[in-house]
Amino acid sequence: MRWAKRLRRLADTSNFRHAAIVAWAILLIALGAMLLSSYLIDKLIREHVRDIVSMNLHNQSALLGQHSHLPLLTSLLANTRQERDGIHSLLLAPDGEVLFGAAYLKQLQSCWQRCPPSEVDAALVDSAGEAHHFQGMQLSLPDQSYYLVVYDILPMQTRVKVLPLVIGGGLFLLLITSLGLGLYASMLSMRRVDDIRQTLRGYIAGNRRLRLPEAAHGDEFDLLAADINRMLDQLNHLMDELKDVSSHMAHELRTPLTRLHQQLENVAEHARFGPTADAIHRALEEAERIQRMFKAILRIGEVESARCAHAFAWFSADKLLQELADYYQPLAECSQVTLEISVQPAQQLYGDQALLFQAMANLLENAFKYGKPAGQIQLFAHITQQEAQLGVADEGSGIPPHLRSDATRRFRRLGSREDAPGHGLGLALVSAIARLHGGALQLRDRKPCGLLACIVLPQAAGSA
Prior knowledge:
single chain; five-stranded mixed β-sheet
């Protein structure tokens, strides 16, 4: 099955298609050449036989003009070499009696015509059962006798018939060779394309040191590899600059925010009552909100650029969900929300456990904020050999299908709960973590109501 799949992939390559087109074009041209050559060879044989017969009649023209057939009969009896040369003669008396020649040639009499002389072209079988194909001339003598001169072209046609077959066999070998060369070229091209795809996939997965090999051939793949390597170098340069900017922002902004928060706390200790204290507490909450938002933005950037610490390994899916439920159980009890876990025991998941825990925590917090009050929230994981699905299902109002693509963008807050805490960065972070694992975040409807936020991870790609 693997070889069949690989052959199908090779057959879909442009090199093999071009080779197949050229091979089939050669085959069509060859078939046309075979038919044309067969026609021309047959025509040449007939022209040659016509010249032989005409020469024979020209040599006997003096005898054919006599008032009696006897001089012609005497000449035919004296010259028996014609039979050995393939020329067959038949002389019939006016009453139809065979004066010279083989009697089976009288079967050609149905092809004869009266004067003027006419050509004869017919196939027949002699008394011994041997097939013949005669071509020649017949004419009527002055004494009403008939004279026939024909040549058996069947042996000659049989000998030259092998020529189109030889040409066809050679062209068939040429076709097979062309397809074989096309398949070989496709294998080489597919190998280079697979190298490019594997390198780019590794780069997307976070290995920023990967580069395409550049050979000295200078073909189109080498030129493409050089351009891709330059592009990857430029991306690394831009990502390093972004990292420097992020680090600079963290150094320049986080420290002043921390000082501001500390100063507000110091002021709040001296003004514990009155309108001033309330304003200071609101300022403290706003400063904490800005700090959390800033940390979330930096975290998303780290995940998207694969600069965050991550270690992919196999771990227990039910253990992940159980730890998540235990961590948020006090919040669920305060919100009168029932947490349920749906997972098969001993199922293994491939990925970074800490990042997936953070992603699931963001989805669970969204379910607490936007789900049904005093409702039910389900944590689930369904794992097959091809993919793993884990996520959170609530009983809230959900997200309309036409707004789901916007829900995963930064600072997008949908629905009627604009007063709910948050910055619109939770789903963006979950989507970035899913993409880091080679998967995606999918938002679906839950039956009969609610939202089902599912992280879909390809297990095969993850375990490679």
